[in-house]
Design brief:
The structure is a single chain. The protein is 59% helix and 5% strand. The chain contains 16 helices and 5 strands. The strands form 2 sheets. It has a 3-stranded antiparallel beta sheet. Strands 4-5 form a two-stranded parallel ribbon. The longest helix is centred in the N-terminal third of the chain and has 19 residues. The N and C termini lie far apart (89 Å).
């Protein structure tokens, strides 16, 4: 028992009596009276022959009890994770840490760990990511820089915690220190450092209609989104029911074979056009 008490104290930062006081404050004091009664040999044999389902149910009840013993309030969780209470509530609400609602407050499991964050990017990579976010494309990037920036945008779109990822990529003050232009990407990083999870998620998820009247704009958005989505030209052709030649021509010149084919390609890439180049039938 002493070893168990020591382990609970080391794990939770509170002695068993302190944990009990907290439980009693939330759920009321327990009432207990023990009566010992000798068991006969037949009774002991019956107890030892309990079916597996009964033993499993007993284990389940024990697990539930341990969950309540090891739960933390949001303030304790914030201190353990090294974040603000507001941030801890956001992590609990989004399911990024194991937690449950108790009335109007969050109760966090003792097993909660802070989600991992990305490593700081080099200044050049920071600029490339913010400009790609601002332009909503990979325009101006070539080769390795284009592939890596596409991969980072794909990660940012798919991660369960974009705020934590942006904070990891852009340590506080890095954007200003490295002279990154104040644009949409810069603003997104600033919101992440302000802990504005909902705003960051909303801005990343928002699908702004793309004005693609110029063929070169259409070509660039298709080529960029294909790479950001991790698709080869063959993958995109298969998904949009067309050919690789159609995809390559579209990415090279913005020319397309039919409005229906173009709509399928843009739908596959989740691009909503506000305007498109006029369709010219080949003669």
């Amino acid at each position: 028992m002493a070893l168990l008490a020591a382990e609970m104290t080391a794990k939770t930062g509170q002695t068993p009596s302190q944990r009990y006081a907290g439980l009693a404050a939330n759920f009321g004091h327990s009432a207990y009276a023990r009566q010992d009664a000798p068991a006969t040999r037949a009774q002991k044999a019956k107890l030892s022959s309990l079916e597996a389902s009964a033993r499993a149910e007993c284990f389940q009840h024990t697990q539930i009890l341990m969950r309540y013993i090891c739960d933390m309030k949001i303030r304790e969780a914030a201190n353990r994770l090294g974040v603000s209470e507001r941030r801890a509530r956001a992590l609990a609400a989004s399911g990024l840490i194991p937690a449950r609602k108790a009335g109007t407050t969050w109760v966090v499991s003792d097993a909660a760990k802070r989600p991992g964050r990305g490593r700081p990017l080099a200044p050049a990579a920071q600029r490339q990511v913010t400009e790609a976010l601002h332009n909503r494309s990979l325009i101006g990037l070539r080769g390795h820089d284009r592939r890596r920036t596409a991969q980072r945008l794909r990660t940012l779109r798919s991660t369960s915690d974009p705020v934590l990822l942006l904070r990891g990529w852009f340590p506080r003050g890095a954007a200003l220190r490295h002279g990154i232009p104040v644009n949409f990407g810069y603003r997104l990083v600033a919101l992440a450092h302000q802990g504005k999870d909902l705003e960051v998620r909303d801005l990343l998820a928002r699908k702004t209609p793309e004005y693609l009247r110029a063929p070169e704009d259409l070509a660039e958005i298709v080529a960029s989104e294909r790479v950001i989505n991790g698709l080869s030209a063959a993958d995109l052709a298969t998904k949009s029911e067309t050919t690789v030649d159609v995809i390559r021509t579209l990415e090279r010149s913005g020319a397309y074979t039919s409005p229906g084919t173009l709509r399928r390609i843009l739908h596959t890439l989740d691009v909503s056009p506000a305007a498109l180049p006029p369709f010219e039938m080949s003669t």
